[in-house]
Amino acid sequence: MGAEALREYLRISRQSQSGLARDLGTTRQAVQGWCSGAVRPGLWHALMLHKRAGIPPDSWLDPVQRLALQANVVTKVVDTGDRRE
């Protein structure tokens, strides 16, 4: 999901992988890995891609991680909701 969005962003913005890498302070090889889906960006780069390209940070999560995140969020909401007085 994140890789597809990044490829689309690069296509629409007509920016090269090298240019994006330079702007984000990383290597072209790292951006190439993100685009191919072989690797995912770390948190900082995921947040920068969100700011720059509008790619949600959770789009880089795999389905199991996404479910775990959603379950944790729901648990926190229920826990805090139950403690209100």
The average pLDDT score comes to 88
- The percent range for strand residues is under 5%
Q: Can you write the helix and strand succession as a string?
A: HHHHH
Helix content: over 70%
Total helices: the number is 5
- Rg to the nearest angstrom? 16 Å
Low-confidence stretches: none
Multimerization state: single chain
- Any idea of the CATH class of the domain at 2-60? Mainly Alpha
Please summarize the sheet with the most strands: none
* Tertiary shape: elongated
Instruction: Indicate the CATH topology of the domain at 2-60.
Output: 434 Repressor (Amino-terminal Domain)
* Overall strand count: 0
N- to C-terminal separation?
Answer: 41 Å
Fold and architecture overview:
This protein has helices at 2-13, 17-24, 28-36, 43-53, 63-82. Helix 2 (17-24) crosses helix 3. It has a domain at 2-60: 434 Repressor (Amino-terminal Domain) (Orthogonal Bundle), CATH 1.10.260. 71% of the residues lie in helices and 0% in strands. The protein is mostly helical and 85 residues long. The model has no long low-confidence stretch (mean pLDDT 88).
